[in-house]
Amino acid sequence: MRADRLVSLVLLLRQHGRLSAAALARELEVSTRTVLRDIDALSAAGVPVYAERGRHGGFALLPGFRTELTGLNHDEALALLIAGSRRGAQVFGLGPALASAMRKVVDALPESYRATAAGAAQRLLIDPETDLLSRRLVPEEVPDTIVAEVRRAVLAGHKLRIHYAAVDQTPKWRTVDPIGLVTVRDQGYLLATRSGADRTYRLSRILAAEELAEPAQRPDRVDLDRAWQERSTRFRTGGDQVTVLVRVNPARREDLVGTALAVLTEEADADGWLRLEVTFQDPRHAEWALWQLATSAEALAPQWLRDSLRNRAAAIATCYGVSKATPAAPTSLTIDVGASSMHDSRVPEA
User: Fold this and answer.
1) For residues 83, 86, 91 and 95, what is the CA-based torsion angle, rounded to 10 degrees?
2) CA count, 13 A, side-chain hemisphere, 10
3) DSSP assignments along 99-165, one per residue
4) Does the pLDDT value for residue 298 go beyond 50?
5) Hey, which of 64-68, 116-120, 209-213 has the most confident mean pLDDT?
6) By the number of CB atoms within 10 A of the CB, which of 66, 100, 129, 333 ranks highest?
């Protein structure tokens, strides 16, 4: 809305002192022409904004002008700034709103706190896009129009029609009663019920969404954290899950645990390796996870998994065996080859 944009424009000028029309346009995600019109509107409303000509010119406010927003101390503002650095707002299509809110948080601080809080926030990083092994965490792309429609239905308590593409199924329209939105590792989920049964839908698989006028059939209050935990537990204990007993080098424990659904037991062997009983979504998932660890892990049971890994290793060794045309001396070869296709962790849905 234009009123929100005008407030954001004033706050940007207060925090930066002087900004060009192009810089304001980038911050506000509008055109330069829109910025110029907004400047005129502020001037007409009595806000003391003026233009400075020249190479380093731009727009600025008269010294001493400020909006009177109070009530936050240094630590409260710092907590909000750090919370605002998380990417959940991006998943739910609230990125621009978050940026505007953070500008208001900074402006609400007394002058003596403003610089120190903003500087402190720059010293703390939450959930970076890559970990220490340079593995990039790629957030799922969901069109803003779809996220906005889903979000409106969730907050308004209305029924929602979604065109959903479940794995290995033809996309279908479904009418659901939305309960809440959850983001986990930059993946967004819609918790809902359909005909009274719990359903969990991945936002990236919603192809279209339409908020309906009919009220949703749902409780007035909800413990979203508890609801998510309950659905996660049902997911881990149902379907085609398999339980695997495995020995793993402690240095690769997190790699194993990170791909498993759950760790049931864990103990240390005499040689320092760890013996874990873990569950995977299905046999293909278990084979893929153990193959990634090469000789840093050994599947002890079930026997079919040992046979499958042995057969895969034998096929790779045959593929890269010594050529008959150019004999070579036997060499010791350590194989560490990734799976041919990445496992797709599935979300329970209708």
Assistant:
1) 70
2) 24
3) HHHHHHHHHHS-HHHHHHHHHHHTT---S-SB-TT--B--PPP--HHHHHHHHHHHHHTEEEEEEE-
4) yes
5) 209-213
6) 100
